[in-house]
Amino acid sequence: AFATDSEAVRLANDSEYGLNASVISKDKKIALAIAKELHAGTVNVNEGYATAWSTLGSPMGGFGASGLGRRHAIAGILQYTQSQTIATQNGLGFGPPFGLSDEKWGNLLTAFLGAMKKIGWR
């Protein structure tokens, strides 16, 4: 049992687990404020579990020692991926082209940017 909302939040968060939580209240605004303070992967307001679980566009999973990652939505797909960036240079690079000194390259870029600014290019 608890005497205040803050005590209830403290007791709920005093665990290594955080899979699912529910906040039941006549005042939805207060319930939403409490829900934001809970350390749980899913928090339901005025419902036990089904609403959040059936929302396929929302990620599902626990905080702390709860759950096995995420499922549903983009977060569920991304846990099975490994991002990689592959880039190619198709235009002028940052360094001077072969045969052009750093000073001449800098002057050329400065002139180019000045001309672009005059014509309103951003």
The amount of helix comes to 25-40%
Number of helices: 5
Q: How large is the share of residues in beta strands?
A: 5-15%
Distance between the termini: 61 Å
| Integer average pLDDT | 84
Q: Structural class of the helices, strands and pairings?
A: alpha+beta
Shape label: elongated
Q: Unreliable stretches, pLDDT < 50, 5 or more residues?
A: none
Biggest sheet details:
2 strands, antiparallel
Radius of gyration from the alpha-carbon trace, in angstroms: 27 Å
Instruction: Please report the total strand number as a whole number.
Output: 4
Strand order of the largest sheet: 1-4
What is the string of helix and strand elements?
Answer: HEEHEHEHH
Walkthrough of the structure:
- This protein has five helices and four strands; from the N terminus they run αββαβαβαα.
- By secondary structure, it is α+β, with helices and mostly antiparallel strands.
- It has a domain at 5-78.
- The chain has a two-stranded antiparallel ribbon. Strands 2-3 form a two-stranded parallel ribbon.
